[in-house]
Amino acid sequence: MSVRKLGMVASRILQLLFIGLVIAAVCLDLDLPLRWIVLPLVLAFAVVTVANRWGGAPDSPRVARDPVEVAPPVTGRWSARNSPADRTPSHGIHAHGQTYAIDVVAEPAPGQRPAFHWLWPLARRPQDFPAFGAPVLAVADATVVKAADGQRDHLSRTSLPGLLYLLLVEGSVRELTGTGRILGNHVVLDLGDGTYAAYAHLRRGSLTVREGDRVRAGQPIARCGNSGNSTEPHLHFQLMDAPDPDAARGIPFTWRGIGVPRNGETFEAPAATPALG
After folding, report:
1. Where does the chain cross the membrane (predicted)?
2. Which of 87, 186, 207, 222 would you label with 142, given CA atoms 20 to 30 Å apart?
3. Looking at the structure, do residues 137 and 8 belong to the same domain, yes or no?
4. Stated pTM of the model
């Protein structure tokens, strides 16, 4: 286990200890000194800082990498969100190997994707979104090194109350309980040459591959879902330099024939045909 991975695990344990002490102090009326309650939180920050320094900061790659060209992971008409073409880190943090990650939502035709509403409806079924159930494709010939299924596809968080709940409550709980709860159902492929592709928020029960399987470029490996830390059905895609997001650094990518679409940009991904042989 890498130094940074150990640091992440230790930090989560310390944060859970902090929450436990707060609950004990409030609910059990324990007379705990404030310094003892806050100490685990301070230690959690210190552990992550030291682990990143010793293990290599996540925003300083081991070797500078040019963008890796791969096939698109979807087919049809989609639009980009949180794109590395607009900023890096694209999702605001380097953690979990997502410096150059991108989110894509299906846009088959104007008006088919439900819009964000300030108050009502509070949430929508995942089936109301055109991305839900869309095929997700292998971006290259690869080996499956991680295939996690079983998490539910929850309701959307496409209202202001729903978004606040995700940011203030659900997201924090998922962060404390591990990267797998953030990614939801996910697949990691080993593309070779120290490059790994991660697909997150997949539909429960849709994975067609298992760990150890070999896949060909363009092969369907799962379907788009709304599991994990997700506001609506979409695909989160990233390249990284290790199979474990907690220990990985992001690698820039470019999609063959498309490039890297900017935020809000709509693109058409052609139907892929797996290579024969």
Report:
1. 34-55
2. 87
3. no
4. 0.79
